[in-house]
Design goal:
Mean pLDDT: 77
Number of helices: 9
Number of domains: 2
Order of helices and strands: HHHHHHHEEHH
Low-confidence stretches: 71-83
Number of strands: 2
Structural class: mainly alpha
Largest sheet: 2 strands, antiparallel
Radius of gyration: 17 Å
Shape: globular
Length: 205
């Protein structure tokens, strides 16, 4: 796990490596104390850094790289797709429709990354960047790849308090045929389905 974080740091811009190493190490430590998956945070850090290289790739290469990543994660997690009681369903969307939705999510994650507090942009606060990112996420595809039916379209609220604090709230709703809870968690995470499942499998080992 430490190796993944160091790889993520190495792939980061030189002027951000120290800050990112400190932040990601703290995130993983917090995940352990909160009973969350530290491996998921480590893989997320690596994904963030890899996506940061997207400016060096053409759109076609970015999509191809994303598809290859999904294929690799699928092979890694193929034997554990039913982990935690999860079984793929086709109640609301066919297998082909789910695959199409997953490709949309893969293309989005190949060209977009969630903002980090230190990734400042001229005239935009971290909260404003987060709100814009959440508004850009193809939430229906994120849900449909899991055979989840959207019951409430994603709504992003960006508010400012009188003391200058800002908050960003995301509201959404969906119903999933899978009863294990895995699909519901996946439908709230901006990752291709295969990547999410393989990450969960790796963190359980």
């Amino acid at each position: 796990m430490a190796l993944l974080v160091e790889a993520a740091v190495w792939l980061s811009p030189a002027d951000r490596r120290s800050v990112r190493r400190e932040q990601w190490t703290a995130d993983i430590a917090l995940a352990k104390t909160e009973g969350l998956s530290p491996m998921l945070f480590a893989v997320g850090a690596l994904t963030t850094s890899l996506v940061g290289w997207r400016s060096r790739l053409t759109p076609h290469l970015m999509v191809a790289a994303s598809c290859l990543t999904i294929a690799g994660f699928t092979l890694l997690g193929a034997s554990t797709l039913s982990q935690g009681g999860y079984q793929a369903t086709t109640t609301y969307f066919s297998s082909q429709q789910q695959a199409d939705a997953e490709r949309i999510v893969a293309e989005f994650t190949a060209t977009n990354t969630a903002p980090l507090p230190e990734d400042s942009r001229a005239g935009e606060s971290f909260e404003e960047q987060t709100a814009q990112y959440w508004q850009d996420v193809p939430w229906r595809a994120v849900a449909e790849q899991w055979d989840c039916k959207v019951t409430l379209d994603a709504r992003v609220t960006h508010t400012h308090t009188e003391v200058g604090h800002a908050t960003v709230t995301l509201e959404s709703g969906q119903i999933c045929a899978d009863t294990s809870g895995v699909a519901a968690e996946g439908a709230a995470t901006v990752l291709p389905k295969a990547v999410y499942l393989a990450t969960a499998a790796a963190s359980a080992q």
